[in-house]
Amino acid sequence: MTGSAGGANEVRFIEDFFPLLVCVAPHRWDDAWVSSMMEGYEGYFRRGERYALITHTPRGGGLAGAKERRRIADWANSPRVRKLSVELCVGSCTVVRDPFTRAAITAVLWFWKPASPHRTATAPAEAVDWCFERMRERAVAVTTSEQDVRQRLVPMLDAI
């Protein structure tokens, strides 16, 4: 597992199963977390390899505030990031257990179109299935079987 070491609100990317990449969202959103997240994605953009992304919301985690949402939207909508996302991200799935939070994300997606295919999921296993389907459709070579990922990653995410 890679990512920042430290407190409970540090950015965590799980890349053990790359080209399936996992970004664990924070319990508490703030400017520092958003900056670290953006910096983390820059490393994957420089890597230049196609991937599928799961963004996992931990238990008790909430949505970003208005200020953080604006920063993320400005970054994600920049021509460079949209271009790299189209080229490299074959699909992204956000795991959100809470139905109200999922509804809020769905509402945001009515007004904003991500650069790559996106959906929400209620559980990590659903996100893994969807991401592997995207990788198969786009002929992304995987190094770990879907079954192995389900056996190792899903329990890890269920525990968060």
Task: List the SSEs and their pairings.
Layout (H helix, E strand, L loop, with lengths): L1 E2 L8 E3 L5 E5 L6 H17 L3 E6 L9 H11 L2 H10 E7 L3 H13 L6 E4 L2 H14 L8 H13 L2
Parallel strand pairs: 3-4, 4-5, 5-6
Antiparallel strand pairs: 1-2, 2-3
Helix pairs in contact: 5-6
Question: Could you please describe the fold and organization of this structure?
Answer:
With 160 residues, the protein is an alpha/beta fold. It has one domain (2-158): 2-Layer Sandwich (Transcription Regulator spoIIAA), CATH 3.30.750.24. Helix content is 49%, strand content 17%. The chain has six helices and six strands; from the N terminus they run βββαβααβαβαα. The protein has a six-stranded mixed sheet, with helices on both faces.
Number of strands: 6
Distance from first to last alpha carbon:
14 Å
How would you state the average pLDDT, rounded?
89
Oligomer state equals single chain
Instruction: Give me the CATH superfamily.
Output: STAS domain
Order of helices and strands: EEEHEHHEHEHH
Strand order of the largest sheet: 1-2-3-4-5-6
| Number of contiguous helices | 6
Tally of distinct domains: 1
The profile of the biggest β sheet is: 6 strands, mixed
Share of β-strand residues? 15-25%
The CATH topology is given as Transcription Regulator spoIIAA
CATH class: Alpha Beta
Shape: globular
Unreliable runs: 1-7
Secondary structure category: alpha/beta
The CATH architecture: 2-Layer Sandwich
Over all CA atoms, what is the radius of gyration? Answer: 15 Å
User: How helix-rich are the residues, as a percent range?
Assistant: 40-55%
